[in-house]
């Protein structure tokens, strides 16, 4: 009796596993096709790829394309732009969601807090095309910002075509789109802080600022460290889609980044092998950064993303 | 005691000032967030002369709907709108099925091979072949200039999958065991027990997928050249980048008294509108939903 029951559960166990694999299969097949098959195509970075001959038959050239990349002065230019833009975004934008989360947490009126949250999360859900359209409208030479500034200026500022302004526009629009949404993670971390800590602090006579400084900030510091490291992991990204929709030839010298360069040279000019070489360099460095970042986060903050 | 009470009172005055300043700054931020929308909305609703002479601020001047009539009547706009609706509906439905199924399987800790599959998915999230190998793949699959190229590659987002998986891991195992003893199979457990108690996270992830499909322009930009397959975002992209050039380039029928700026504004608003409609309904879910699953404790 006992034996037969055991056998039945074992049998049904196998059957159930089989059903689990069926559930997994579609996603697995899609990932293999659209994420792993392109890795096979990466070999064109080591070949003189000819689109009419195909990947397999194109002649192998070793590291020739990489030698060209690393001897190309413009490559260092776009690498520099990528790092500078990422750095500006990190320095100016990283602290803002922390501050916003603490501010939101201090609002006692629920309706007010909810309303502000609803508004500031919204831009996260807009595409860069829409955001670019909105800011082209207000920052154009006859846009409302220039109308407001016109009494103080000889001529309108061409925010989107001026090398001195374009990076500021990138940082500002990135902040406008993302700061509200980024605050969510910190708000959740604040909710996780033990309320008894605050009660004890109030009994001890700690004022609001002391409570923020000594309880809230230490309470969310693991989250801050985790997100800082993740941000460093995406240094080479620099906002590819944003720049792609907002830049123009007049600001290439300050805004062309690795991603946009690969796109223009690789697909636009059909230098497939050269583009794939730059892209491979980008993917490998990004991968190393994110893996290192995750290990660091595990060690420093005791948390990781996977 | 008295001294301490006095101290407390004095602090609370500063604190009240702080609270007021805090609320003021938050309202300022909300206003700055809304300002571009309101201005562009006002422009799209204002008359030609008001737009050209720069009278439009936050409210429409000489309100009219002619710009919207022109935009909606444009055959490329209606065709692009239809393409965007199709890929968003099909894509979101397909993505939810595929992602939820896989997330359920991967949430079972004792499944043989689970860790191998997890690593396979996570690696795919972290290492990309880049746009050129992807382009060559789509080309050899014959997917260039096909609506499927806008749907299939985005069906599995590993980040979304992990959020659902983490949520499933947090649901009580005892419910599933009880059903299994009653003879239910994996599929009916998933549909009758697991999914109904996971509605908040499913709503959140559906929103993420729908927004991603609606907003996608880059795939269309590299894989689509047929005008009848261009989604709305790509159409808007072309309008926005055209207006960065001298205004004379813009395809506006001058006989209709429309300014390029107003046409651009109306197209932007029409593209944003569907997001504005679904957003408030789903907003209440995502704070709860995403945060539980996003960061592993």
Give a quick precis of the structure.
The complex is a heterodimer of chains A (306) and B (297). Chain A has helices at residues 2-41, 64-70, 73-93, 95-106, 110-121, 128-139, 144-149, 163-191, 195-203, 208-233, 240-246, 252-255, 258-268, 272-301.
Please provide the ordered H/E string of secondary-structure elements of chain A.
HHHHHHHHHHHHHH
Low-confidence stretches of chain A: none
| Rg value of chain B | 26 Å
* Helix content bin of chain B: over 70%
The rough form of chain B would be described as globular
Helix/strand/pairing category of chain B: mainly alpha
Count of strand segments of chain A: 0
Counting copies of identical and different chains, the oligomeric state is heterodimer
Q: Can you tell me the CATH superfamily of the largest domain in chain B?
A: MetI-like
CATH class designation of the largest domain in chain B: Mainly Alpha
Query: Helix- and strand-based class of chain A?
Result: mainly alpha
CATH topology of chain A: MetI-like fold
What fold name stands as the CATH topology of the largest domain in chain B?
MetI-like fold
Q: Greatest interface and its residue counts? A: A-B, 93 and 102 residues
H/E element sequence of chain B: HHHHHHHHHHHHH
Topology summary:
The complex is a heterodimer of chains A (306) and B (297).
Chain A: H1 2-41, H2 64-70, H3 73-93, H4 95-106, H5 110-121, H6 128-139, H7 144-149, H8 163-191, H9 195-203, H10 208-233, H11 240-246, H12 252-255, H13 258-268, H14 272-301
Chain B: H1 2-45, H2 48-52, H3 66-73, H4 75-106, H5 114-126, H6 131-140, H7 158-169, H8 173-181, H9 186-194, H10 199-215, H11 218-223, H12 232-244, H13 260-294
Helix pairs in contact in B: 1-13, 3-13, 4-7, 4-10, 4-12, 7-10, 7-13, 8-9, 10-13, 12-13
Explain what you see.
The complex is a heterodimer of chains A (306) and B (297). Chain A is mostly helical and 306 residues long. Chain A has one domain (64-301): MetI-like (MetI-like fold, Orthogonal Bundle). Chain A is built from 14 helices and no strands. Chain A has helices at residues 2-41, 64-70, 73-93, 95-106, 110-121, 128-139, 144-149, 163-191, 195-203, 208-233, 240-246, 252-255, 258-268, 272-301. In chain A, helix 3 packs across helix 8. The longest helix of chain A has 40 residues, at 2-41. Chain A starts with a helix and ends in a 5-residue tail after the last helix. The mean pLDDT of chain A is 90. With 297 residues, chain B is mainly alpha-helical. Chain B has 2 domains: 33-64, no CATH class; 66-294, MetI-like (MetI-like fold), CATH 1.10.3720. Chain B is built from 13 helices and no strands. In chain B, helix 4 packs across helix 12 (232-244) and helix 7 (158-169) packs antiparallel against helix 10. The longest helix of chain B has 44 residues, at 2-45. The model of chain B is unreliable at 244-250 and 291-297 (pLDDT under 50). The interface between A and B is large, with 93 and 102 residues.
């Amino acid at each position: 009796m006992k034996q037969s029951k055991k056998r039945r559960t074992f049998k049904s166990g196998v059957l159930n596993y089989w059903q689990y694999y069926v559930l997994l299969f579609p996603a697995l097949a899609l990932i293999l096709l659209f994420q792993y098959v392109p890795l096979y195509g990466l070999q064109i970075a080591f070949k003189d790829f000819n689109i009419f001959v195909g990947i397999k038959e194109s002649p192998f050239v070793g590291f020739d394309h990489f030698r060209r990349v690393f001897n190309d002065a413009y490559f260092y230019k776009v690498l520099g732009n990528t790092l500078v833009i990422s750095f500006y975004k990190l320095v100016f934008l990283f602290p803002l969601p922390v501050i916003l989360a603490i501010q939101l947490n201090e609002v006692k009126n629920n309706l007010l807090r909810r309303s502000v949250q609803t508004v500031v999360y919204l831009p996260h859900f807009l595409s860069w095309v829409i955001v670019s359209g909105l800011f082209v409208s207000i920052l154009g030479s006859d846009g409302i910002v220039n109308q407001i500034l016109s009494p103080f200026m000889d001529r309108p500022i061409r925010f989107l075509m001026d090398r001195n302004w374009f990076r500021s526009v990138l940082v500002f629009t990135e902040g406008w789109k993302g700061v509200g949404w980024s605050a969510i993670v910190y708000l959740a971390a604040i909710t996780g802080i033990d309320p008894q800590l605050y009660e004890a602090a109030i009994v001890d006579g700690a004022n609001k600022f002391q409570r923020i400084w000594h309880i809230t900030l230490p309470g969310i510091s693991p989250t801050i460290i985790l997100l800082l490291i993740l941000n460093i992991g995406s240094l080479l990204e620099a906002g590819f889609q944003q720049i792609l929709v907002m830049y123009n030839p007049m600001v290439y010298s300050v805004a062309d980044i690795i991603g946009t360069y690969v796109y223009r040279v690789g697909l636009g000019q059909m230098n497939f092998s050269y583009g794939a070489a730059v892209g491979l360099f980008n993917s490998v460095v990004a991968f190393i950064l994110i893996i290192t970042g995750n290990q660091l986060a595990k060690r420093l903050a005791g948390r990781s993303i996977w | 005691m008295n001294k301490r009470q006095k101290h407390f009172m004095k602090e609370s005055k500063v604190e009240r000032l702080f609270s007021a300043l805090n609320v003021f700054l938050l309202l300022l931020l909300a206003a700055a967030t809304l300002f571009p929308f309101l201005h562009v909305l006002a422009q799209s609703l204002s008359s030609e002369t008001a737009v050209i002479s720069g009278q439009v601020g936050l409210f429409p001047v000489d309100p009219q709907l002619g710009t919207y009539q022109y935009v909606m009547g444009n055959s490329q706009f209606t065709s692009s709108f239809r393409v965007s609706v199709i890929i968003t509906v099909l894509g979101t439905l397909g993505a939810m099925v595929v992602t939820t199924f896989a997330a359920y399987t991967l949430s079972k800790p004792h499944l043989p091979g689970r860790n191998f599959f997890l690593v396979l998915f996570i690696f795919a999230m972290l290492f990309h072949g880049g746009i050129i190998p992807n382009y060559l793949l789509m080309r050899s699959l014959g997917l260039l200039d096909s609506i499927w190229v806008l749907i299939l590659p985005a069906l599995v987002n590993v980040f979304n999958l992990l959020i659902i998986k983490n949520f499933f891991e947090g649901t009580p195992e005892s419910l599933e065991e009880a059903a299994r003893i009653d003879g239910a199979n994996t599929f009916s457990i998933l549909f009758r027990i697991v999914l109904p108690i996971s509605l908040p996270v499913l709503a959140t992830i559906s929103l993420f997928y729908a927004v991603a499909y609606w907003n996608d322009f880059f795939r269309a930009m590299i894989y689509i050249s047929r005008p009848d397959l261009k989604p709305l975002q790509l159409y808007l992209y072309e309008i926005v980048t055209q207006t960065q050039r001298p205004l004379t380039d813009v395809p506006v029928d001058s006989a209709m008294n429309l300014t390029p700026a107003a046409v651009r504004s109306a197209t932007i608003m029409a593209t944003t509108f569907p997001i504005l409609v679904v957003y408030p309904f789903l907003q209440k879910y995502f704070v709860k939903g995403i945060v539980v699953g996003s960061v592993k404790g």
